[in-house]
Amino acid sequence: MRLLAFTPVHVDDAELARRQARYDALSPTGLVVVLRDLGPDAPRALDTESDVRASEDAVAAAFAAADPTGYDGFLPDCVLDPCAEQAGQFARPLYGLTRLTASYYASQGHRVGALARNAAIAAELDRRLAGYGIPAEPTTVMNLSFDDIADSRAWTAAVARYAPSLESAVAINACSAVDLAERRTDPVVVDPTATALRLLALRADLEVAA
């Protein structure tokens, strides 16, 4: 399975390379993610409601204009699953990191929670989960900056501080591009990118077998 992904914000070459390397490392055998930058007209960070809406519009436009040749699906590089409502309008299936991850854990009987870096992301994530009909507690806000996304120690420290306040057994680490420096077990804090890629690889295996 080969997927085309777009970042939800405009990033520089170094950050794009870091995110691509992360996909390369997390993708199971047989799954390839090709990541592209959304472009200089996109927001630089998702810090406000306006940023979230502008990002969603830009992601939808990018997938609509993309040449689908050689790709089996589209994957927004964002836990907010931008343009999920428009999934049927694209030339390839659109997959959502949060939808895949949250649906999986909900199917196991878990009520999920999430940890987001700011209030704008938390509000949109709550809206998205509600739209999917997935039971979830309100997303916890960690008050982190965009630069903290690439700082695994700072992000991990924030997770360690805020995660114990969650009531859910499973918490989504609500950023597609973060590596936690260590694994928590109470609650279980899951990487939505790693989880979604494993599920997509399983889907690809099943399709081949069929």
TrEMBL record:
InterPro entries: Iso_Racemase_Enz_sf (IPR053714). It comes from the Bacteria. Gene3D superfamilies: 3.40.50.12500. This is Hydantoin racemase.
